[in-house]
Amino acid sequence: MTERDEVDTPRGPARVTRRHAAGTARGLLLLGHGAGGGVDAPDLLAATAAATAAGFDVGLVEQPYRVAGRRAPAPAGHLDEAWTAVCAAVAPGAGPLVTGGRSSGARVACRTARATGAAAVVCLAFPLHPPGRPDRTRLPELDDAGVPALVVQGRSDRFGVPPGGPDRRVVLLDGDHGLRKQHDELGAAVAAWLSALPRGTAPAR
Question: Any idea which UniProt keywords this protein has (predicted)?
């Protein structure tokens, strides 16, 4: 079953498309889109199908600038503020909250994990640095999330490939930042990782 709702945020209305797992859900996964894309990106749809099969309800979140018809992304602080408001509006009573997204959406989920009380984050094509600028690393955003993280990345991503870590699993697929290949493998990685999360996983502190 699919539901679509608008959620008021300090930055204007966001839109959440909900897809439900069969039976009683283990939790809620909220996924955000990339800077210039939408929630219909193939990797987001593959992750959604995998998560619902693993027993999670999924919400695909469109940021207010996209709902308003703009393609140019809002400033990071505005994205984080809107995302936090959406999580507060839709997560209560949904069980453990897992947040994530692709590219810019993954960065937002990591930056706000503590504020939203997320129990874990799913990052698709996390942009480790601007193309050709490895000195401008965004690794602290991943490190500071404070919760288990799954990163699914293209081997030839020009935005870089994050390293693994004690609480971070990195899965490499053929392809680049668009993650247009190996969607079955992407879905399998997401489903297996979500299924392995302990029930009642503690949120970020």
Answer: Hydrolase
- For the chain, give the mean pLDDT: 93
Could you tell me the residue range of the domain that residue 149 belongs to? 2-196
pTM above 0.85, yes or no: yes
Residue 49 pLDDT exceeds 70 = yes
- Is residue 23 pLDDT above 90, yes or no? no
Write the CATH number for 78.
Answer: 3.40.50.1820
Q: What's the total number of domains in the chain?
A: 1
Q: Please report the DSSP string for the chain in residue order.
A: -EEEEEE--TTS-EEEEEE--SSS-SEEEEEE--SS--TT-HHHHHHHHHHHHTTEEEEEEE-HHHHTT--SPPPHHHHHHHHHHHHHHH-TTSSSEEEEEETHHHHHHHHTHHHHT-SEEEEES---SSTT-TTS--HHHHHTT-S-EEEEEETT-TT-----BTTEEEEEESS-TT--S-HHHHHHHHHHHHHHSPTTPPPP-
Confidence class for position 8, pLDDT limits 50, 70, 90: very high
